[in-house]
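## retry 2 of 3
previous attempt timed out at serialization; input unchanged, resubmitting
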Amino acid sequence: MILGHEVSGVVESLGTANAHFKIGDAVAIHPALPCGKCPECLRKAEHLCRHMRFFGSAALTPHTNGGFREHMTVNLSQLFKLPENLDLQTACLAEPLSVALHAIVRAGDVKGRNIMVQGAGPIGALIVAGLKVAGAKTIIATDLQDFPLETARHLGATATFNTAHSVHDNEYDIVFEATGVPKAFESAVKCTQKGGVLVQVGMFPPGEVSVPLSQIISREIDYRGTFRFNREFGNALTILSQNPWIASGLITQTFPLDKYSDAFKVCANRKISSKVLLEI
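## retry succeeded, writing output
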């Protein structure tokens, strides 16, 4: 199976005539192809499709190949023409930014709110950027490493805390848990104020996870899940085109496709990298 679900490229051929695209168009590619027939699709929650085909996914058989290759054939519905001032390198961030934007939608109104993002990896950092664009009052980012926190500051965090060195237990209107580490969940609950919203972004590993339900109940914390994204992709491209600082703050290294092994080694090192790209 070929991996890769954050993809941009150039149209080389079209299977059918259409008025929207032509050969040579620069495009971002939506990685999801929902079935359009299941109950979730019919109620316009296509991102929760029961039969989703998603780039680089082994969820269904045959597996769905992703974008780490020179050529790929996709459905026309997956193509989004780039705004004139948006380059291909920046455009491939539309997928992870869409994940961040969907998480923000799940949180509700963030304008003027005091917010913490727990975990400053690429998705956490993009949540920070999305919150800045949306007008959040205070954006606090926490992480165990200094490099991701530096990235978060570039993307709009008003303050950062390295929780490897000190405990951070201030309370916030909204908390985004973007680590997916079970041990970190308790601190996310503690940092959510009474009546606040806790959005679970990070994916926990398989198996049981201990949850302080009594705290969630007695403090009336609204615990919300968020999964991938739905219709935020076009908005993500617009935001990227209008805010070039997002890409410049997030992209740390770029490798040619044949140096994929080096790219994966760098990507695994959170002390030196945030978003690493493969380029043809």
